[in-house]
Every structure is written in structure tokens, then in C-alpha cells.
UniProtKB/TrEMBL annotation:
GO terms for molecular function: porin activity. This is Outer membrane protein OmpU. CDD domains: gram_neg_porins. It holds the Pfam family Porin_4. It is found in: Cell outer membrane. The lineage of its organism: Bacteria, Pseudomonadati, Pseudomonadota, Gammaproteobacteria, Vibrionales. Keywords: Membrane, Signal. It comes from Photobacterium marinum. PANTHER family: OUTER MEMBRANE PORIN F-RELATED, PROTEIN YDDL-RELATED. Gene3D superfamilies: Porin (2.40.160.10).
């Protein structure tokens, strides 16, 4: 992997559990690995009726990854991941379930898989709990089912170019849509990307979304920015209610510093309904994560919420509350 992509992963403090997955089967052509995480999270925040209420956000993820060689330069692959919530089993979800083929020129899979814009929101979505409030994506550009997805990574002038594209078929809940994106990461520490998504909404107006991202890694420091401009997305939630947004724009800035086994991160998120001139997100968040080893970490995260209550926009006391989170995570 390109050394700057590694630096990005470390700065993000979101090392995939796949990195610690245990291989449970292997022969000359095939392998099967099992991984996941146990993550205890306690959230303190105001609700509509209580102040400083502590909520249990504990979750468990289990994944299984398989790969088999078909011929020189061609392989078959499959991946499944399920998340279980301790507080409310109705929030349990299948995060991934796909299979496909890969080789020298990339990987093509079908099922529940990532869209193409998550690659860009990952630039600033690096906190252990908070952040990514300005990175809401269309369903077709996010992790979703009925999804035909391609990703390829190539060497271009000695640097890494990654391209992603996907098409989501209408399944009743999600309408037809697609997204595409590209990122270019240079050895000198600079990375940048651009992406676009579009999706039918069931009306004459399609949802459209444009993302741009940039990052820079120098020594133990990492800096990144994300910008988005969208139309007819209708995907934002305030106080757990869907908000119909015709036009929106927003940005997120992130910075991290790695000191030994501890990573310190700060982000700023802002998102507005530019048609109604209403702030949808406005927050500063900070966290610290300590990695005891590759399998276990603990963290504290605090969000300073700058939103004001707005009955017209559905922004109530709970939506304007600061949040404090303590967490511990074991990867396997």
C-alpha cells in the first residue's frame, strides 16, 4: 500500500478489523478469514426530556472474508459483515454482503457494498465517534444493497490513483442511481479526490451531489478538508426526523496528531440548507484515542454543538446538545 495511504489510515484512527482478522481456513487456492470488533460506548447528552442522560451505544461487528484464486491475475471474493446493537436490536444491520471477481485491473462486486463517495468522506471522517456531519451521502453513493460496484487502484507517474464507480438498481426503497469518484495520492504527502453522485427521487427532480476532498500528511500531523454541494438529497436527519432539503452545501475540516500510541483529533463541521438559509450542522469535535496494541484501544470524544433551537427546521433541545462519549474497542 502507498505509504501515504497508510499514514491516512493511522491518522484516521479507524484501522479496519480486517487488519486483525484471523485466517480460519487456507489451501493452495482459497482462504477464509473471520474478524470484527467489540466496542463499548457510553454517550452523555441532553434529550428532549432529560439533561445529561447516559445512553448505551455499544455495538458488535462480525465479518467473514473469502478469496479464491481462479487463474493468474484473477480471483473470486466475498465479504459479509453484520452489526449488532446492545441497546436496540431493531438497529442491527447487515453492513456488507457481496461477492465478485478481481484482478490486475480492479475488482467488480454485486450485493450490499460501498458507493463511490465514501472514499472522499474518509478524508475527514477520522474520529473515533464524532465527525462526518457534513458528509451525508445519497443512498446510491453510500453503502447500500442492489449495488454493482467497481474499484481499481493504479500506479500513475509513481503515485497512487484509485477510481471507483457503482450503479444501484431500483429496489423500491432506493431508486436507480450511480456515483463515481477518483483520488490521487502523492508520495510527498498530498492527496486529493473528486466525486459525483446522482439518484432518482421518484419525482422529476433528481438528487445530485458533488464532493471534493484534499489531505496532507507531514510527519505525525495530518490535515484534511471536505466540501460538498447537493440538490434534492432529502437525506438529512434532525432529531431523528427526515428533513426535506432542496439545496445544501457544507464542509468539514479535520486535523490529527499522533504522539506515540495516542492520536489526537479535532474536526469542524458545517452544513446549511442554502435554499432556506438554515444551519443543519454546526459543530466542533475533539477526541483522543490511545492504542494499547493493534487489537485494543480506548477513547474519549466531545462535541461542541453550535446549533440553536429552531422549531421551523425541527431543531429541538436534543439536536442542539453537546455530547461526550467514552469508548473502548477490541478488534479481532
Amino acid at each position: 500500500m502507498n505509504k501515504n495511504l497508510i499514514a491516512l489510515a493511522v491518522a484516521a484512527a479507524t484501522i479496519s478489523s480486517a487488519a486483525t482478522a484471523a485466517e480460519v481456513y487456507s489451501d493452495e487456492a482459497s482462504s477464509l478469514a473471520v474478524g470484527g470488533r467489540f466496542e463499548a460506548r457510553a454517550l452523555m447528552a441532553d434529550t428532549a426530556t432529560d439533561s445529561n442522560k447516559v445512553s448505551d451505544k455499544t455495538r458488535v461487528r462480525i465479518n467473514v472474508a473469502g478469496k479464491t484464486d481462479i487463474s493468474d491475475g484473477l480471483y473470486g471474493t466475498g465479504f459479509f459483515e453484520k452489526e449488532f446493537q446492545s441497546a436496540d436490536s431493531s438497529d442491527d444491520e447487515t453492513r456488507y454482503a457481496y461477492a465478485g471477481i478481481g484482478g490486475t485491473y480492479g475488482r467488480l462486486v454485486y450485493g450490499k457494498a460501498d458507493g463511490s463517495l465514501g472514499m472522499l468522506t474518509d478524508y475527514t471522517d477520522i474520529m473515533s465517534y464524532h465527525g462526518n456531519e457534513a458528509g451525508n451521502k445519497l443512498a446510491a453513493a453510500d453503502r447500500t444493497e442492489n449495488n454493482l460496484s467497481y474499484v481499481g487502484s493504479f500506479d500513475l507517474m509513481g503515485n497512487n490513483l484509485t477510481v471507483k464507480t457503482n450503479y444501484v438498481f431500483d429496489n423500491g426503497d432506493n431508486k436507480d442511481g450511480y456515483s463515481l469518484g477518483a483520488q490521487y495520492v502523492m508520495d510527498m504527502g498530498l492527496g486529493f479526490g473528486l466525486g459525483y453522485g446522482e439518484q432518482d427521487s421518484g419525482t422529476a427532480e433528481k438528487g445530485k451531489q458533488l464532493f471534493g476532498a484534499i489531505s496532507y500528511t507531514i510527519g505525525d500531523f495530518y490535515f484534511a478538508g471536505l466540501y460538498q454541494d447537493a440538490e434534492n438529497t432529502s437525506v438529512y436527519k434532525i432529531s431523528n426526523a427526515d428533513v426535506n432539503v432542496k439545496e445544501s452545501s457544507g464542509y468539514e475540516f479535520a486535523a490529527s496528531y499522533t504522539m506515540g500510541k495516542t492520536v489526537f483529533i479535532a474536526t469542524y463541521n458545517y452544513l446549511e440548507d442554502s435554499d432556506k438559509n438554515i444551519d443543519l450542522r454546526d459543530s466542533i469535535a475533539v477526541d483522543a484515542t490511545h492504542y494499547f496494541n493493534k487489537n485494543f484501544r480506548a477513547y474519549a470524544s466531545y462535541k461542541f454543538n453550535n446549533l440553536d433551537e429552531n422549531a421551523t427546521a425541527g431543531i429541538n433541545k436534543a439536536a442542539t446538545s453537546d455530547e461526550f462519549v467514552l469508548g473502548a474497542r477490541y478488534d479481532f
